[in-house]
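Could you help me review a protein record that somebody else here produced? What it holds is a sequence and that sequence's fold in token form. I need someone to confirm that the token line plausibly describes how this chain folds. Take the sequence as given and treat only the tokens as open to question. This is what I was given:
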Amino acid sequence: MTTPTLLLADSRFKPWEAALWLLAFASPWLLGKHALIINEIAIVALFAISLDLILGYTGIVSLGHAAFLGFGAYTAALFAKHISPDPLLGLATGVVAATALGAICSLTIMRGSDLTRLMVTLGVAAILTELANKLDWLTGGSDGLQGVLMGPLLGKFEFDLMGQTAAWYSLSVLLVLFMLARRLIHSPFGATLKAVRDNRLRAMAIGIPVASRLAVAYTIAAGVAGAAGALMAQTTGFASLEVFALERSADVMLMLVIGGVGWLYGGVFGAVVFKLLHDVVSAITPQYWTFWIGLFLLVLVLVGREKLMRPWTWFGKAGGKP
């Protein structure tokens, strides 16, 4: 088979994946009381996938990725309050706005070393935080943008207090963008991204336009992060300065450490483990939950992810890394 055919075959769903996603979509109904946490997991999983696109597949380190999450959240919230409460239109607007911001910011990450890129991404998040704080007439300032009311999804499904509609909505967006992301990384374009990640100088030597590849990957990842931010604002009815916080970027980095980089399911599984640990441990020890998560990460690094999480490893080996 030719290389494009092999890449296309790698992007197809395996039987175990179909079962996994069916279980995920059944979970808001099976675990009705926990639909809100399922919604949160779906959103942060999408955010983790967006970071993995640049970190795991392109080698761009970012500690300010929350800038795009927050920009998408505020854009979708403002769109709902002042233009239209339609969820899908708001989602599309948030994605477009974050993608445009990513395209602008991509001009800065093409220069300098990894350290300068790290500082630039932090700087963008800091600038947006301060703008959102100062433009209180538009964003609500430190009080946040409150009272974001959404219309029924597809004109039929109202957002309920239990969060089931929100969970199915977020899971649907997660699945669609996951499939698009996987199709991208298993395309010839995705192969060039991996070449740039593995050896940038060699990629340049064989004629790959490294700068444009970095810019496109960064822009796409920004759009996916903007989708996660839009979902967050729409399903919570609120957007605050906290969405730009460094902790957001650090948390999503921890999710990739838990699940593994360079594997889209790593972001999904990492989000599940991190959010469940956060929810369970903070309920037991509200003041010291970060200690236990830190201890878990230390054990994970010292013992090894494959030994602690053999089922995930088995899935990856059974069907090839998705």
